[in-house]
Amino acid sequence: MMRASKAVCIIPANEGRMESYHPVTALDNEKCADHHCSACVELGAIAQQELVRIARVRRYRAGETIVAEAEDIDFLGNVVSGVLRLQKTLHDGRQQIVGFLLPPDFFGRIFVKKSNVAIEAATDATVCCISRVAYERLIARFPELEHRMLVNVLRELDAAQDWMLLLATQSVSERVATFLLNLAKRVGVIHNSAPTNITVPVSRRDMAAYLGTTVESISRKLQEMARARIIRVIDAQHFEIINEKALVALSQHNGEEFDHV
Amino acid sequence: MMRASKAVCIIPANEGRMESYHPVTALDNEKCADHHCSACVELGAIAQQELVRIARVRRYRAGETIVAEAEDIDFLGNVVSGVLRLQKTLHDGRQQIVGFLLPPDFFGRIFVKKSNVAIEAATDATVCCISRVAYERLIARFPELEHRMLVNVLRELDAAQDWMLLLATQSVSERVATFLLNLAKRVGVIHNSAPTNITVPVSRRDMAAYLGTTVESISRKLQEMARARIIRVIDAQHFEIINEKALVALSQHNGEEFDHV
DNA sequence: CGAGCAATTGAACGCTGTCAACCCGAGTGG
DNA sequence: CCACTCGGGTTGACAGCGTTCAATTGCTCG
Lengths: 261, 261
Hints:
DNA-binding; 9 helices; about 40% helix; 4-stranded antiparallel beta sheet; disordered C terminus; homodimer; alpha+beta
């Protein structure tokens, strides 16, 4: 069990660029409570204690595989730090990222063994893991957990359908604009015409795989937007939104492009 | 409540091209049992009787809206006959079909009011409807129902992610091939190199909206495949798969196209 | 300093969308 | 019964967006 994940899982004492290291369960519990994670927040005290007791922290390096595609997976996990990517690969190698998991996010399924997406670390990441069978046992005692998971999966389904619309009908410019706006939304509410700084936590390659295009197209569109004074490129991962109105317009329409800015 | 759906719902005595008409609850129950629908099959006798008691049949004409996008929906439904389409629309009118519902399929959500997709009748259709609150009350007594719904939504999510991969990475030829093969799979197992007949239950327009392309491209690719003796076009809705191997190859690869058939 | 990778930029090709004309079957009305 | 209309589907010509291939830059790490 945990075939692939054991192979790549890092459980070091104090390795690499880890800024701080906490005792396993303590770190886990604190983080989950802090970030309103879907697994262990707002539960009764008993359920929460149970979760903390069986949870374990794992650390992954950027690029490592947490779960392979079509692999049986026997645990669930909360992202504590870093970014994970959910991706699918075609037989000939083409691949598509179907979602990113950022810190409070949750992955894993109950009553279903096989994962149909690969889960990989897009950056160095920390994940709080819980055995699936242990979680299922917990569900038997706290039905609230299953309800919680259903709502979570429904959200995921909504997001997937939104993304299908975007991938199938929108141009690359629109997709990039939407991506930037979504990032900005994550950071916080956008103030009217106030410059907003955003951090892209993934590489151009991952951006391209998520947006269903190529790194070259991503780069071109970003520079186009920079030339049109819609955004300012600080460095490859950091941008400032100069003209938010134009970005919003760009994300849903097209045709007039950048001319009228 | 049921704002839009009441406006368009047809509850006729004996209208149009209906081939047979059964008493409401009887029809409902029989159909569900026959088709292994996710709502009322394999339940205990008591739960099943309850479901039958509160379920009602509705009939829709092709093109009618069952649920509008972003509308509150207070019922769940099984498709008994016909085809429904789940679709999303962009502000400027571009739209994408994110899924079809064929007879044993199920739609609707519990504990969530708003639907984020529009549900429309792609053909004349019969739907077996259950009030959401009644269903939720039933869930309180038969937790099995919630479990069932979770598994169903997980399947939908898988399908959505598969389709994201297809939309984002595959060519129109590959998408059409995949679509035909999926239809064939629905019909039954494909025998090796045995001709298989398939029926496309929707219009070219809906095919295009589902495959993220245009009617013109669909038409071209179908005729290409016909010229290459991969399929035979009987009429606009009926095809015969002549070279299944080629179709499978086409659905996942590309590049060599039809030259080597 | 050089190797290696990520990102950018340039040029050219090709898939696919757009626009247009045409065909065809169904429904309608004279 | 036929002419007409209308909508769905097919086919053709063409252009544009975005991919592909290729070269360059810049940064990090050893």
